[in-house]
Amino acid sequence: MLNKRTAKLFIENNTDKDNTYQVLDSVKFSNNQELLLACQDMYDRLRTTRGKMMRSINYLLGRQWEDRILDPDGLYTNQTIKEEDYIRRQGKVPLKYNIMNKSKKSIVGLYRQNKSEPVAIAHDRDEQKLGEMMTIAMQYVCDVNKVPELNARLLESAFCTGLFARSCYFRHNSERQMSDVDIQNENPFMMFFNSDVQDHLMRDITTVGAIRDLSMNELVSAFAKTEAEAKALVDEYRDVLNQKVTFLDAFDKNRHGTESDFLVTKDKTKCRVIEVWNKESERCYYVHDRAKGTEYYAPLTDRASFLAENERRKAEMVSLGYSEDNASLIEFEWFVREFWYFRYLTPTGRCISEGESPFEHGSHPFTIGAYPLLNGEIYSPAEELIDIQRGINRRLSQIDFLIQNSAKGVLMCPVDAVPDDMSYKQFAQEYTRNGGVLFYKAKAGIDMPKQITSASVSAGELEVVKLYMQLNDEISGINGALQGQKPTSNTPAARYAQEAQNSSINIEDFIGWFNSCVRDSNYKMMQVMQQFYDDKRYIPIVGKTFSEESKWYDPIRIKGSKFDLRISEATSTPAYRMALEDTLFKAFETQAIDFKTYLEASSAPFADQLLEIIKRKEADAAKNGTPINLGGMAAEAGL
């Protein structure tokens, strides 16, 4: 197995001894093997964080007794054992009542209920139609990539891990036979980035990457452009071809666990590729051409051409009778520019693909967020509930143990009280028989048989469990009003409405952070669309919110426009449709709009059919010269 020590054997001693410009020209002096080891070190430094993530996931999924403790009966010092195994060794049952999953379901359900969608707003007020056009295109991409479902699953992951990880590429989709924007959630257990991040917006990330486990077909399809490149890839991963069967169970939780190796995949039928995006630097000239009104970067080798062009412009200006000071020259200055550079590395350090960021936004394809990053630490909402969950489980196990070991209707019968003509067994059977009757002669000084039942569980034990449940609801922000539960009979309607409105205050910070990350991801998606959507296309968005003109995406007009992005409530929710229908109906009743306008804006199921009938009758009326009675049609429709 490859690790830091053995992987160093692959490092070639071919670096330039003069490291004066290694920082200034990082790509030129880069070493892929050293970069691979640096990425492995970043991945290893996240091991503690991954351990906390896995612990939260275990508790959320009901594996709540898997924490390891010191084994008091261990054979050697510091021997550990799972809590579940230790409890079973004592003859007890490790009970659990999963309240964390209830809190997670409530938060995800609330997010699904409050649907949202991205809305693009043009900087120039005269270009608002372009903003509408971009909004339609973004909603189309969200529908194709099933972004609402991805958001719900990513919210569930962030609830446990405190990390938001998503990527946005533009690549070929073999199922749809076309190239389009591809959005996917990243597994936080397969991600790595520089461990010195402190900025809450993650703007100080300098290296970010992901571990990719691909089949041989996927590997060759993604990276081979010629027959020779395909053969080289097959030779690099020759061992994978000999592995026909994986030894991992389906949906195995340990496939990407805390102890996963960076260089070696657990699935031997997969080819491991490390995708690395690193912020590099290079020496260049920052150029401002005043004659053309352009600004750009140029290599240092262009200095002579700039000087020659400036001399030509001066001479041209003098030939026209002006001073050479009036010439619009090319201004340039020495500059060190930063840019993102990607590499796809094999576990041996070989680079199979590299280049400067192909995106016009100039950054990497990932959107990374960490919550709350207080003093540089990640602390998920699920982690706050673990102690409460453990308290409930301990109390339930204790109550169950007391009940099991308490007297439950034990019969205390003096031996002399048993009739002489009955054995002990016959007496016990007749006593416990339904409708049984025992006849015996009472003897002086002999007590009657007595049945004993002990109240082993005190009311205080149940009150403690109830207290833990209340603490969970208060800390997680999940209360009855948020879940839509019925109020008590004495609760005023105004108070319950206020409770329902304020019920999500405790989770507002977490949901706000998540929405901010979603907005950053959508903004990156919008920039990728502006860059790669270069053909005019019709966006098949169903609905009447947008004009037909805006559904024609025009890349020429879109590319030069600047947009802001905001997340707004979706117009497809029942509450929105109900409010729209009420407003339209009131406007129709007061004759502020006619019946045809009402149908064009309405989302009622009969609106489209009636509108088609009206248009057909209008066409017939125009032919015959007879007027059409819209009021009669509205009365027939019950409006």
Number of E-state strands: 19
The largest pleated sheet is described as: 6 strands, antiparallel
How far apart lie the N and C ends? 76 Å
Shape descriptor = extended
Percent of residues in beta strands: 15-25%
* Portion in helices: 40-55%
Mean pLDDT: 83
What's a concise summary of this model?
The chain is an alpha+beta fold and 639 residues long. It has 22 helices and 19 strands. Strands 6, 7, 8, 9, 10 and 11 form a six-stranded antiparallel beta sheet that branches.
Essential attributes:
extended; three-stranded antiparallel sheet; 42% helix; alpha+beta; 639 residues; six-stranded antiparallel sheet
Report on the structure:
By secondary structure, the chain is of the alpha+beta class. It is 42% helix and 19% strand. The chain contains 22 helices and 19 strands. The strands form 7 sheets. Strands 6, 7, 8, 9, 10 and 11 form a 6-stranded antiparallel beta sheet that branches. A 3-stranded antiparallel beta sheet has the order 5-4-12. Strands 1-2 form a two-stranded antiparallel sheet. Helix 3 crosses helix 12 (381-404), helix 5 (100-113) packs antiparallel against helix 7 (147-161) and helix 8 (216-223) crosses helix 9 (227-236). It is extended and about 145 Å long. The protein starts with a helix and ends with a helix. The model is unreliable at 4-18 (pLDDT under 50).
Set down the secondary structure blueprint.
Elements: H1 4-7, H2 32-45, H3 47-60, E1 68-70, E2 80-82, H4 83-89, H5 100-113, E3 116-122, H6 128-144, H7 147-161, E4 163-173, E5 178-185, E6 191-193, E7 207-214, H8 216-223, H9 227-236, H10 238-241, E8 271-289, E9 294-298, H11 303-319, E10 330-345, E11 351-356, E12 366-370, E13 372-374, E14 377-378, H12 381-404, E15 408-412, H13 424-432, E16 450-453, H14 459-476, H15 480-483, H16 493-502, H17 505-532, E17 537-538, E18 552-553, H18 555-559, E19 563-569, H19 574-589, H20 595-601, H21 607-624, H22 630-636
Antiparallel strand pairs: 1-2, 3-19, 4-5, 4-12, 6-7, 7-8, 8-9, 8-10, 10-11, 13-14, 15-16, 17-18
